[in-house]
Automatic annotation (TrEMBL):
The keyword DNA-binding applies. GO terms for molecular function: DNA binding; DNA-binding transcription factor activity. Gene3D superfamilies: 3.30.450.40, Winged helix-like DNA-binding domain superfamily/Winged helix DNA-binding domain. It comes from Bacillus canaveralius. This is Glycerol operon regulatory protein. InterPro entries: GAF-like_dom_sf (IPR029016), HTH_MetabolicPath_Reg (IPR050707), Tscrpt_reg_IclR_C (IPR014757), Tscrpt_reg_IclR_N (IPR005471), WH-like_DNA-bd_sf (IPR036388), WH_DNA-bd_sf (IPR036390). May be an activator protein for the gylABX operon. One of its GO terms (biological process) is negative regulation of DNA-templated transcription.
């Protein structure tokens, strides 16, 4: 019985290691060596090597024979397609995002909250894109991005306090790091129905976001536009916000929400 329990614990540990390894790949670091993974995750090289061999055999990672680096395999892509096809907000937002980009001339996103972070599900580039840290699958802080602040503002008090307790790291001089100022700011976002970030996460980058509701009236996602401060200027925020809010309402209606 004891031996069986130890075997089960070993299997669970192996699964956890595999998941940690897969989640460590990002758009910023799409390829990694065994040594990179070992150092980053605090795992023995032999453990990482065995796990990667298993993942490779199932198509979840691919090893470049020349560089010896690993990258995510096509099995991940097939799972991603299944997830996306079952997410109504992903499907319903596509035409609205296209229309919003055409109207405003800036890149637009759909994002959701996951593990106290904002994660981008959908992205439509404008005709003159600038490289931002907002690619699909990218995770950013909740409290200093417009989409993150919308999601946080409409969440419960426990979530807000948990984010505050984790610490409000300063990314720029405009990042809100004072807990009470953030609470007040989030309250204003709910009253106004939209959020903006004026160089709070990245210098020279501004964004505006609005909520997306499901048929029960819950905020399940945020729609946002992002661009350089030269194009999304502070005096234009209200005008752009109206279009973003309208787009959010249109997606919400397609999701079955009415008010």
């Amino acid at each position: 019985m004891l031996a069986l329990k130890k075997e089960e614990e070993s299997h669970l540990s192996s699964v956890k290691n595999a998941l940690r390894i897969l989640r460590s790949f990002t758009m910023d670091e799409p390829e990694k060596k065994i040594s990179d993974l070992s150092t980053a995750l605090g795992l023995n090289k032999s453990t990482v090597s065995r796990t990667m061999a298993t993942l490779a055999s199932e198509g979840f990672v691919y090893k470049d024979p020349e560089t010896k680096k690993y990258r995510l395999g096509l099995s991940i892509l097939s799972l991603s397609g299944i997830v996306n096809s079952n997410m109504d907000v992903y499907r319903e937002s596509q035409p609205i995002l296209n229309k919003l980009v055409e109207s405003i001339g800036e890149t637009a996103h759909i994002s959701v909250m996951d593990n106290l972070e904002v994660i981008y599900l959908q992205k439509v580039e404008c005709n003159h894109p600038v490289r931002f840290l907002t690619h699909v699958g990218r995770r950013n802080p909740l409290y200093c991005t417009s989409s993150g602040k919308v999601l946080l503002a409409y969440s419960n008090e426990n979530t807000i306090e948990t984010v505050i307790k984790k610490g409000l790291q300063s990314f720029t001089k405009n990042t809100i790091t004072d807990p009470q100022k953030l609470r007040t700011h989030l309250k204003n976002i709910k009253e106004n129905g939209f959020a903006y970030s004026i160089e709070e996460f990245l210098e020279g980058v501004n964004s505006i976001a609005a909520p997306v509701y499901d048929y029960k009236g819950r905020v399940i996602a945020a729609i946002s536009v992002v661009g350089p401060k030269q194009r999304i200027q502070q005096h234009k925020v209200q005008g752009i916000a109206k279009k973003v809010v309208s787009a959010g309402r249109e997606i919400s209606t397609r999701m079955g929400y009415w008010k």
